[in-house]
């Protein structure tokens, strides 16, 4: 649906040039919730401004719905560009509502050039506010609304012209964790209900994990890694991606705490500390059941976490296995055979 090919964006300032986006190519399919993560300054906002045609690239090709919107030959006229932009809604961190207008008026403002009659507009605004769960706040001004409610108005406004694509640029960054969850749930609902393709810019991997199905990681203007959320979370290749994921899963913190515990500090000779990671079906089987029976190896779970990524359960466990050395070895091999990644974190030492 969205195809970016070799996009560069270079800004020329008085004394220096800034290469904000460097040779980025990516494809976003219809119905995707596509996360783009990276630290501040990575080039995320500049890249999505290219997608919604607010920023002309210095090089590259933009194709939306099989139509080339921009390359070194094609340039859309002003009116074509306005039509294209209407197909793309956008929401931001600071909502960008007009403070002197009510919620209803803010949404209606986006319908100014829609050609609808006054009555049709009124009906549509009511429908949009209902869609975002804000019917009872139609007459409130932004100052009378909470952050989450303001973002709901902004979402209703962004959807006013029935866009096919919604771009969210850090839209939950100014919200508390609970409100963030609610807004993400709304975005997911709109994705499913309307078939809306969503491009989700964020500096938090947690957000990607919650609702995205694909993710790209940006660093210094480059797209350094891209893939399904499941692949990226279970098998991140780049160091930056790994860092982002660690902050989203909590495994590092858990491990640091566990390593301070005396049973781990003085891990006995017949024990082994392992990290187990599994995705999909293996979580349906009782993974560690039977290990004791089959191998006479005891399993002591110190930490466990299961996430649902794009509808697939993904689990991590930190476990102490204790038993005779060759039995522990055999148990590890058996676990691995169940399609579980196993990493030895520590071997017990003889006292
Ligand atoms: N209009 C502009 N003029 C000059 N430099 C810009 C402009 N917009 C963004 N930049 C620069 O481009 C880089 C990427 O910025 P941005 O896309 O906003 O990153 P992000 O959204 O990932 O934080 C930054 O170094 C920023 O200062
Ligand atoms: Mg930004």
UniProtKB/TrEMBL annotation:
Key words, A-Z: Amino-acid transport, ATP-binding, Cell membrane, Hydrolase, Membrane, Nucleotide-binding, Translocase, Transport
Highest taxon, organism lineage: Bacteria
Subcellular location: Cell membrane
Primary location group: membrane
EC number: 3.6.3.-
Catalytic activity: ATP + H2O = ADP + phosphate + H(+)
Protein name: Methionine ABC transporter ATP-binding protein
Organism, as annotated: Streptococcus hyointestinalis
Gene assigned in the entry: metN
